[in-house]
Design brief:
Layout: H1 2-26, H2 31-49, E1 57-63, E2 73-74, H3 75-88, E3 90-102, E4 109-123, E5 126-138, E6 144-150, H4 153-161, H5 163-175, E7 177-179, E8 189-191
Parallel strand pairs: 1-6
Antiparallel strand pairs: 1-2, 3-4, 4-5, 5-6, 7-8
Helix pairs in contact: 4-5
Length: about 200
């Protein structure tokens, strides 16, 4: 009986000791995450206000292409792409959940930011909601170094303006043309006044 009591007490001591150790290990410093989360929110505010703060991005920033055949974009290319999107539509972040990213070795917060969000997109009187997942990486100075995001942007655009106009809009960036909203289903386009001479 005494041996059983000793065994019980020893087990309790071991469990208590392990519990305290686990609690210490599970405590994480989220200061870097909170700071970088503010940067992500600043980026989102830029989309809403149609005025992006370029200083939050590192010179080596890359927007990782996640669509089928979508290329990666450097800082200049990403900013140009976003400007076209902001010129075309109004965006408002309706709901968001931010989570700290972790390293793949110790599963400890590494300063990166993950988010789930629902955006309301508007083109004229047409509107729709877009659910997005995104992840953001940062350098030691708190500059954003990369972004990758997942959402059905093409489907949302098609729901708002129809497949023909959506196709023109998606092709406009590559061909440097602007979609002609009066072209109907003929696939006509207007010359881009920034890159083409109009007689």
């Amino acid at each position: 009986m005494k041996k059983l009591n000793y065994l019980f007490i020893a087990t309790l001591l071991i469990l208590t000791s392990c519990s305290g150790t686990c609690e210490d290990k599970c405590k994480s410093d989220l200061t870097e995450f909170e700071t970088n989360k503010e940067t992500v929110m600043k980026m989102f505010s830029g989309f809403e206000a149609k005025n992006m703060d370029e200083s939050i991005f590192a010179d080596s920033f890359i927007e990782i292409g996640t669509g089928v055949g979508e290329p990666d974009r450097n800082k200049e290319e990403a900013l140009d792409n976003w400007k076209g999107m902001m010129d075309m539509m109004n965006m408002s972040l309706k709901t968001s959940i931010f989570l700290p990213g972790v390293d793949t070795v110790n599963f400890q917060p590494d300063g990166s930011v993950r988010y789930y969000g629902t955006w309301e997109m508007n083109i004229g009187e047409a509107s729709d909601e877009l659910m997005v997942y995104g992840s953001f990486e940062f350098d030691k100075d708190g500059k954003m170094t990369s972004l990758q995001h997942y959402g059905d942007y093409t489907g949302t655009l098609m729901m708002m303006v129809g497949p023909d106009m959506a196709g023109q809009m998606m092709a406009a960036a590559d061909e440097e043309i602007l979609p002609n909203p009066d072209a109907g289903n003929q696939g006509e386009t207007l010359p881009n006044p920034d890159t083409e001479i109009i007689d």
